[in-house]
TrEMBL record, chain A:
Pathway: Amino-acid biosynthesis; L-isoleucine biosynthesis; L-isoleucine from 2-oxobutanoate: step 1/4; Amino-acid biosynthesis; L-valine biosynthesis; L-valine from pyruvate: step 1/4. Gene3D superfamilies: 3.30.70.260, ACT-like. Chain A, domain 2 (3.30.70.1150). GO terms for molecular function: acetolactate synthase activity; acetolactate synthase regulator activity. The keyword Transmembrane helix does not apply. It catalyses: 2 pyruvate + H(+) = (2S)-2-acetolactate + CO2. Keywords: Amino-acid biosynthesis, Branched-chain amino acid biosynthesis, Transferase. This is Acetolactate synthase small subunit. Dimer of large and small chains. The lineage of its organism: Bacteria, Bacillati, Bacillota, Bacilli, Bacillales. Its EC number is 2.2.1.6.
TrEMBL record, chain B:
Residues 213-346 form the Thiamine pyrophosphate enzyme central domain. Binds 1 Mg(2+) ion per subunit. Binds 1 thiamine pyrophosphate per subunit. Residues 24-138 form the Thiamine pyrophosphate enzyme N-terminal TPP-binding domain. GO terms for cellular component: acetolactate synthase complex. It comes from Chengkuizengella marina. This is Acetolactate synthase. SUPFAM superfamilies: DHS-like NAD/FAD-binding domain, Thiamin diphosphate-binding fold (THDP-binding). Its EC number is 2.2.1.6. The keyword Nucleotidyltransferase does not apply. The keyword Amino-acid biosynthesis applies.
Length: 161, 578
């Protein structure tokens, strides 16, 4: 069985406790949550969660079926089974004495990331992209001394109609 | 559905309940329950449900039974639900009242029993402040309920109750909890009731995919050694007649799981008994040697499959179940039939033809004769199996039997032979000690004209013995059997066989005198220590109109056989000495 990464989209009623229901289902049944994002959807009263998880085909099928058993879950789609767009945003605060700044800015620009804050000893970099890109940006900034990272988790959508 | 029934059977009450009066949340709750056709509620009061109990006090149409422990209330509601097919209802207060229900909720959830559980909570404004007797019961029970509600607005209450009954009693059934803050139960609003249901995220599959039924019938046509594994889903779907017809048409030998007992008549020649850890020799061998295994409303629990890797090694597996998540969960399934078991069988029966199974049946019939269930009887000891057989014979297999959990449960499953659905009530999935006796009380209230026998161990009997009080006070004529082996028998058996006779904390000597205990509560108590006394005491119990407890002092060292040890496949059975 080959375990792979999956990005699933879950359309849920925007009810108190719905995040707890979904998260507790994953916890209780031993499914992994790599990242989770929740926000309002295009429809009033419904939210969309994007969960990145991993598992083989059997596990993915179980995750989907078990999610459907929750009354507040309306639709589950394995987005990663389709051509998709996947984006994540990260803010990375890096040590940056004035002397080293030009070098860092060079790295940031080649990544099409942006600098969103500058202080005497550090700068804050914002990077948007798929998880691989965010990971690569972090790796490149590490040698300068990363002070803090915060990531949004993945938002994703199937391409086309 | 129930509303319709009430409308038809009791027009006057229906009209009274439907009045658009301005009433409290508590009164709305009671009206809504009555509109669902609820005729009996089990509960226990406390601070957070005082408005509800006040409304009960003023409501002559509402029937409530006060138990002596919330656990007794929920197991009674469970026994009521399992034996009648209706939704069981119980009420408890916030905090400790609600947490006392947890074992019962998990028990019902594991066995797919439809319950609606009402709990009070602290005032909405106090929720989250660690107020007196506050517990986050919706949070605590999330993994053990089918769904739950925390009522925030009294205007939502009647709709929530209606939805809760719908969710509990459709699809794969299960417990639904409604948590009502105290202020919500006191606030007033105009009563409205909408019988329509629309829950966007809830549409259980009822009708199966026709193609899969065709595939099932084709597989039966091709099979030489087919077997049916029928579970609790057959009973819960009310599909016992359809199953019998299916088996009669296809001529396929049939096994019933612990929860499936009664879903197929044990008097039928094609019945092979129970599978799994304490299953019959023939049932286990049949599964291991079959070429087609048709699971019907059974979820391939680990006590049935034992070592999954070696389970039914030669079989193509077909699975009929209302819960799609069960199909393919444990065993790889070639033919998935998701739908209401009754509907699936109805459709299959239209075209079902006999399988080519004569040689296979002959082989299994021979096996049944050669390896029947057996025990060594004698005149010096009273054997637990003998007591069960005696109860079976004298009640002609017509009683409703509830059990607790342990050796006595397995002997009851093996030696009481059922021919009717909803007559065998036992905690299978959770294996809850303390369940059997209160469940019998619920079963008796739901089946006033039937004999209800509750078979308990001397350990489990002490886990809900307090409910003897309500049998006495309300003259609930349950016959309470204690299979008294002076030990936690099932644990003793494992310690003997798996832990080399290292007996750790299983001795129950010093238990109360059960006869005196019963009598202290006002229930008649009898004792038997040998066969002759057993027959006499049992006859006396049957002849006594009210509740009776019979303490059968049985052989302590008896083991349940066959037994499959954990880690073995189901054909690796220990058969005992006899
Ligand atoms: C609430 C609970 N606690 C513990 C167990 C574990 N357990 C299973 S069977 C058993 C022994 C039961 O003893 P008894 O009621 O005397 O029945 P017997 O096996 O002797 O027939 C125990 C402790 C359980 N099933 N439920
Ligand atoms: Mg015992």
């Amino acid at each position: 069985m080959n375990t792979t990464k999956h990005t699933i989209s879950i359309l849920v009623n925007n009810q108190p406790g719905v995040l707890q229901r979904v998260a507790s289902l994953f916890g209780r049944r031993g499914y992994n949550i790599e990242s989770i994002t929740v926000g309002k959807s295009e429809e009033e009263g419904l939210s969309r969660m994007i969960i990145v998880t991993n598992g083989d085909h059997h596990k993915l099928e179980q995750i989907s079926k078990q999610l459907y058993k929750l009354i507040d879950v309306i639709k589950v789609i394995d987005i990663s089974a389709n051509p998709m767009v996947e984006r994540e945003l990260a803010l990375i605060k890096v040590n940056a004495e004035p002397s080293i700044r030009p070098e860092i800015i060079g790295v940031v620009e080649t990544f099409r990331a942006t600098i969103v804050d500058i202080s005497p000893k550090s700068i804050m970099v914002q990077v948007v992209g798929d998880s691989e890109k965010v990971k690569a940006m972090v790796e490149l900034l590490k040698p300068y001394g990363v002070i803090q990272i915060t990531r949004t988790g993945v938002a994703a959508m199937i391409r086309g109609v | 559905m129930s509303t319709q029934t009430l409308k038809a059977t009791n027009k006057e009450l229906y009209a009274k309940l439907m009045q658009p009066d301005v009433i409290t949340g508590s009164e709305i709750l009671l009206r809504s329950l009555l509109l669902e056709g609820v005729d009996c509620v089990f509960g226990y009061p406390g601070g957070a449900v005082l408005y509800i109990y006040d409304a009960i006090h003023g409501n002559p149409d509402f029937n409530h039974l006060l138990t002596r422990h919330e656990q007794g209330a929920i197991h009674a509601a469970d026994g009521y639900a399992r034996s009648t097919g209706k939704v069981g209802v119980c009420i408890a207060t916030s905090g400790p009242g609600a947490t006392n229900l947890v074992t019962g909720i998990a028990t019902a959830y594991m066995d797919s029993v439809p319950l609606v559980i009402i709990t009070g909570n602290v005032m909405s404004t106090a929720i989250g402040t660690d107020a007196f007797q506050e517990a986050d019961i919706t949070g605590i029970t999330m993994p053990i309920t089918k769904h739950s509600y925390l009522v925030r607005d009294v205007k939502d209450l009647s709709k929530i109750v209606h939805e809760a009954f719908h969710i509990a009693s459709t699809g794969r059934k299960g417990p639904v909890l409604i948590d009502i803050p105290k202020d919500v139960s006191a606030l007033k609003t105009k009563f409205t009731y909408d019988s329509k249901i629309s829950i966007r995220g809830y549409n259980p599959t009822v009708l199966p995919n026709k193609l899969q039924i065709e595939r099932l019938l084709k597989a039966i046509d091709e099979a030489k050694k087919p077997v049916i594994l029928a579970g609790g889903g057959v009973v819960y779907a009310g599909a016992q007649n359809e199953l019998l017809k299916f088996v009669t048409k296809t001529n396929i030998p049939t096994i019933t799981t612990l929860l499936g007992i009664g879903g197929f008549p044990s008097s039928n020649d094609l019945w092979l008994g129970m599978p799994g850890m304490h299953g019959t020799y023939t049932a286990n061998k049949a599964i291991q040697n079959c070429d087609l295994l048709i699971g019907i409303g059974a979820r391939f629990d680990d006590r049935v499959t034992m070592k999954v890797e070696g389970f039914a090694p030669n079989a193509k597996i077909a699975h009929i179940d209302v819960d799609p998540a069960e199909v393919g969960k444990v065993v790889e399934t070639a033919i998935p039939c998701v739908g209401d078991v009754k509907k699936v069988l109805e459709l299959a029966n239209k075209k079902a033809k006999p399988a080519q199974s004569e040689a296979w049946i002959e082989e299994l019939q021979k096996m049944k004769k050669e390896f029947p269930l057996k025990y060594e009887d004698g005149d010096n000891h009273l054997k637990p199996q003998y007591v069960i057989e005696m109860i079976h014979e004298t009640t002609k297999g017509e009683a409703i039997v509830t059990t607790d959990v342990g050796q006595h449960q397995m002997w009851a499953a093996q030696y009481y032979r059922f021919n009717h659905s909803r007559s065998w009530i036992t905690s299978g999935g959770l294996g809850t000690m303390g369940f059997g006796f209160p469940a019998a009380i619920g079963a008796q209230l739901g089946n006033q004209d039937r004999l209800v026998v509750s078979i308990n161990g001397d350990g489990g009997m002490q886990m809900c013995a307090q409910e003897l009080a309500i049998c006495a006070i309300n003259n609930i004529p349950v016959k309470i059997v204690v299979i008294n082996n002076q030990v936690l028998g099932m644990v003793r058996q494992w310690q003997e066989i798996i832990y080399d006779n290292r007996y750790s904390h299983i001795d129950l000597s010093g238990s109360p005198d059960f006869v005196k205990l019963a009598e202290a509560y006002g229930v008649k108590g009898l004792r038997a220590t040998n066969k002759e006394e057993a027959q006499k005491a049992w006859q006396e119990a049957m002849d006594t109109p009210g509740p009776v407890l019979i303490d059968f002092i049985v052989e302590k060292h008896e083991n349940v056989y066959p037994m499959v040890k954990q880690g073995s496949t189901i054909d690796e059975m220990l058969m005992g000495d006899s």
